[in-house]
């Protein structure tokens, strides 16, 4: 159990002293950028899926008469 406690203490020390964190303003702008591109990409996939769905439905309606 002491090994786990020591590991957690050393991990927090590493994060506090040796990690270079991105400035808050840059992190916010990058988060917004990722959110915008995620929304655009999901809308593009939805559009392609809708088109393929209509094409497949049309195809099956044609071959079934």
TrEMBL record:
**GO CC annotations on file:** plasma membrane
Identify the keywords attached in UniProt to this record, alphabetized. Cell membrane, Membrane, Protein transport, Translocation, Transmembrane, Transmembrane helix, Transport
Q: Which GO terms describe its biological process?
A: intracellular protein transmembrane transport; protein secretion; protein targeting; protein transport by the Sec complex
Query: What kind of membrane protein is this, topologically?
Result: Single-pass membrane protein
Query: Which Gene3D superfamilies does this chain map to?
Result: Preprotein translocase secy subunit
Q: Which GO terms describe its molecular function?
A: protein transmembrane transporter activity
Predominant place of localization: membrane
Where exactly are the transmembrane stretches of this chain? Answer: 27-48
Localization recorded for this chain is: Cell membrane; Membrane
Looking up Pfam families in the UniProt record yields: SecE
Using the record, list the residue span of the signal peptide; answer none if the entry has no such feature. Answer: none
What does this protein's UniProt record list under function?
A: Essential subunit of the Sec protein translocation channel SecYEG. Clamps together the 2 halves of SecY. May contact the channel plug during translocation.
Q: How does it assemble?
A: Component of the Sec protein translocase complex. Heterotrimer consisting of SecY, SecE and SecG subunits. The heterotrimers can form oligomers, although 1 heterotrimer is thought to be able to translocate proteins. Interacts with the ribosome. Interacts with SecDF, and other proteins may be involved. Interacts with SecA.
Q: Which NCBIfam families match?
A: secE_bact (TIGR00964)
Q: Which family does it belong to?
A: Belongs to the SecE/SEC61-gamma family.
Please give the name of this protein: Protein translocase subunit SecE
Give the encoding gene's name. Answer: secE
